[in-house]
């Protein structure tokens, strides 16, 4: 085997690797939500203007498991809601154009100014005010509370009306999303974590149609357009662009 052949083979493999590297896509989200959201937004942008503002409730980390970090890289910005102050202490260094709210989202029926956030291990993504296990076996910290209507008003004041709402607070999302009925305008794109009931016998994605939150959103003009693990992605019919309409 002569040297020129080896050199040519090495160059060919190098360029093949380089071309494949350029196509590489790193997804920051936990279940692939990010790529779906980007695809939907790309289709919407072919027909309508997009206001690059989000609300991310349950921020957890500016990069890891984030459904909004890639949006931020594309010059989006918005409100981040995260009750654990240790999780957001470096947020302003990584995403300085966001506005961080160090509170816990509660529904309008909750009247206390503080709520306990339970955890088994500090700093994990599954900290919750609504644990499925006995609270006696868990540690907790207290967080100031905030309501969805206040978050949306804050977003309007700091930025403008949100185009995308992401909600993942490890419990009570199904009840909280019903409070969108108090909002006088449409948030075009919504991603919300909802689990099917533990006592269900049918784990088909069609079983989500039996949930009150899904029925509420559909009754208010939203299509359930994707299911990524426990994350349900909805797009309002006034903004939804199916592949057949491209």
Topology overview:
Elements: H1 3-22, H2 33-45, E1 53-57, H3 69-73, E2 77-81, H4 91-94, E3 99-101, E4 104-106, E5 114-119, E6 139-147, H5 148-158, E7 164-167, H6 173-176, E8 189-193, H7 212-219, E9 222-228, E10 231-236
Parallel strand pairs: 1-2, 1-7, 2-3, 4-6, 7-8
Antiparallel strand pairs: 5-6, 8-10, 9-10
Shape: globular
List segments where confidence is low: pLDDT < 50 over at least 5 consecutive residues. Answer: 18-22
Oligomer: single chain
Q: Give the CATH architecture.
A: 3-Layer(aba) Sandwich
Counting DSSP E segments of at least 2 residues, the number of strands comes to: 10
Radius of gyration: 21 Å
Lateral arrangement of strands in the main beta sheet: 3-2-1-7-8-10-9
Largest sheet: 7 strands, mixed
CATH superfamily: Vaccinia Virus protein VP39
CATH class type? Alpha Beta
Write down the CATH topology. Answer: Rossmann fold
Percent range for β-strand residues: 15-25%
What helical percentage do the residues reach? 25-40%
Secondary-structure class = alpha/beta
**What is the chain-wise order of helices and strands?**
HHEHEHEEEEHEHEHEE
Number of domains: 1
Q: What value does the average pLDDT take? A: 89
N-to-C terminal Cα separation, in Å? 52 Å
Brief sketch in words of this structure:
The protein has helices spanning 3-22, 33-45, 69-73, 91-94, 148-158, 173-176, 212-219, and strands spanning 53-57, 77-81, 99-101, 104-106, 114-119, 139-147, 164-167, 189-193, 222-228, 231-236. The protein is of the alpha/beta class.
Summarize this structure as a short list of keywords or feature phrases.
single chain, three-stranded mixed β-sheet, 10 strands, alpha/beta, 7 helices, 246 residues, Rossmann fold
């Amino acid at each position: 085997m002569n040297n020129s052949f080896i050199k040519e083979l090495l160059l060919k493999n190098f360029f093949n690797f380089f071309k494949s590297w350029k196509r590489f896509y790193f997804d920051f989200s936990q279940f692939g939500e990010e790529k779906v959201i980007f695809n939907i937004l790309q289709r919407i942008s072919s027909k309508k203007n997009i206001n690059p503002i989000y609300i991310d409730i349950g921020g957890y980390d500016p990069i890891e498991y984030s459904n909004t970090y890639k949006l931020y890289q594309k010059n989006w910005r918005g409100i981040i809601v995260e009750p654990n102050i240790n999780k957001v202490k470096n947020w302003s260094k990584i995403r300085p154009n966001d506005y961080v709210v160090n509170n816990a989202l509660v529904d309008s029926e909750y009247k206390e100014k503080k709520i306990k956030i339970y955890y088994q291990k500090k700093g994990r993504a599954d900290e919750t005010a609504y644990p499925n296990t006995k609270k006696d076996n868990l540690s907790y910290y207290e967080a100031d509370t905030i309501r969805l209507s206040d978050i949306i008003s804050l977003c309007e004041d700091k930025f403008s009306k949100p185009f995308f709402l992401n909600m993942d607070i490890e419990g009570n999302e199904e009840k909280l999303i019903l409070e969108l009925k108090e909002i006088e305008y449409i948030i075009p794109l919504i991603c919300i974590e909802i689990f099917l009931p533990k006592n269900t016998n049918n784990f088909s994605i069609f079983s989500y149609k039996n949930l009150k939150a899904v029925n509420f959103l559909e009754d208010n003009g939203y299509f359930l357009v994707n299911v990524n693990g426990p994350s349900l992605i909805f797009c309002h019919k006034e903004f939804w662009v199916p592949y057949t309409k491209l």
